[in-house]
Amino acid sequence: MRIDIISVVPSLLESPFSHSILKRAIQKGLVEVVLHNLHDYGFGGYKQVDDYPFGGGAGMVMMIEPIDRCLSALKAERNYDEIIYLTPDGERFTQKIANELSLKNNLILLCGHYKGVDERVREHLITREMSIGDYVLSGGELAAAVVADAVIRLIPGVLSDETSALTDSFQDNLLAPPVYTRPEEYKGWKVPEILLSGNHKAIEEWRWEQSLERTRQKRPDLLKNFW
Ligand code: ADE
Known about the structure:
Elements: E1 2-7, H1 20-27, E2 32-37, E3 50-51, E4 61-62, H2 64-75, E5 82-92, H3 95-101, E6 106-111, H4 119-124, E7 128-131, H5 141-152, E8 185-186, E9 189-190, H6 200-218, H7 220-226
Parallel strand pairs: 1-2, 1-6, 5-6, 5-7
Antiparallel strand pairs: 3-4, 8-9
Bound molecules: adenine (ADE).
Function: Specifically methylates guanosine-37 in various tRNAs.
Binding site for S-adenosyl-L-methionine: 112, 132-137
Domain tRNA methyltransferase TRMD/TRM10-type: 1-224
């Protein structure tokens, strides 16, 4: 998979892909993440990418032409499955969408800034709009990092234990069960006996019940989609 991320501050995105699981996924060649500075496609000496809104009002608007030039340069090289604009008024990003995107070959993530992009970008140049939650970030970069992270870890081979993504919270609309590690007892707080029993069938059943109970307690809304 290849993910191209277009931003006015691409340096914001260098760190998330330089550590841990995402770094290893890139090193193993399972994913390629390419950052693009929109200013490279801007106008004049200042490489301008934004301008005042028609009709007045506060804030600047990202111009369509630099975005179109950048997208055209990328699309001339390969086909893209989705061109996703990160915006708080987009479709809510979920584990289901992460699963769906992890099966794609080429994705573009376009990060918004200022007051957002000229509406014609949304009408004509992108295929999808995504929000990571009902709050406003100062730019789409952190949202793009969230989407890319959630997608990349689902690509087969990225997680060392192939099954571990399958047991994540939300993967089957249930929250994950509690986990424990050594020591068996700490300050009198004990690990549940069953996990030390070696009885794998009973452990699986316990985990399933815990998942169900945890979901009932913390996120009863998820159970509506489960049954
Ligand atoms: N840009 C600013 N806020 C955002 C959000 N919540 N989701 C996606 N992109 C954003």
